[in-house]
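User: Reviewer 2 asked us to show a designed sequence for the structure in our supplementary figure. I'm pasting the structure tokens here. Could you produce the per-position amino acids so we can include them in the response letter?
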């Protein structure tokens, strides 16, 4: 015997609700970054529009830090699309290796990138020179692509600056 829904031709399967989920691993993976290839303005504008959509979602949730992070990201992408530049260079390996571990944390401290609490078990936390706290697993991929804090755009040492400093130290020792 057919059910009531079968007789009327009503589909009883529930549709899954789709949401936009950012995969930060692939977004900030330096091996998939193609800095040697210029992106055209349309691609950058599409990416900026995507982050603008995320920003609007965050405004509905009321997270001020995440909103500021996305605002900065959208602004940077729009500037890059208008100026046809590739963005800031990566931070130096020396700077990345010297990132300090932070242990004094508050219960409500969260990583701006992943939105996870920084006190979660086994999480290594670091502090940028500007004072912002991040999970190391989030900030290191960012720094491998950009020499700025993702929240306030504080600039840190690039590989070129590190090489120039080492060269000056060598010359100072030789002629000192």
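Assistant: Here is a per-position design you can include in the supplement:
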């Amino acid at each position: 015997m057919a059910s009531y829904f079968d007789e009327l031709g009503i589909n009883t399967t529930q549709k899954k609700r789709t949401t936009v989920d950012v995969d930060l691993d692939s977004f900030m993976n330096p091996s998939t970054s193609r800095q040697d290839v210029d992106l055209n303005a349309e691609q950058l504008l599409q990416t900026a529009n995507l982050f603008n959509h995320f920003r609007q979602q965050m405004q509905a949730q009321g997270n001020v830090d995440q909103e500021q992070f996305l605002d900065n990201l959208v602004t940077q992408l729009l500037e890059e699309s208008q100026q046809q530049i590739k963005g800031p260079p990566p931070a130096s390996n020396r700077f990345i290796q010297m990132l300090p571990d932070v242990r004094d944390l508050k219960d409500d401290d969260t990583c701006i990138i992943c939105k996870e609490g920084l006190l979660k078990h086994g999480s290594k936390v670091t502090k940028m020179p500007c004072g912002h706290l991040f999970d190391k697993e989030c900030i290191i991929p960012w720094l491998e692509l950009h020499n700025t804090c993702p929240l306030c755009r504080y600039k840190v040492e690039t590989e070129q600056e590190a090489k120039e400093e080492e060269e000056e130290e060598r010359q100072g020792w030789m002629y000192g």
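For the response letter, you might also mention the following. The two ends are 98 Å apart (CA to CA). The mean pLDDT is 76.
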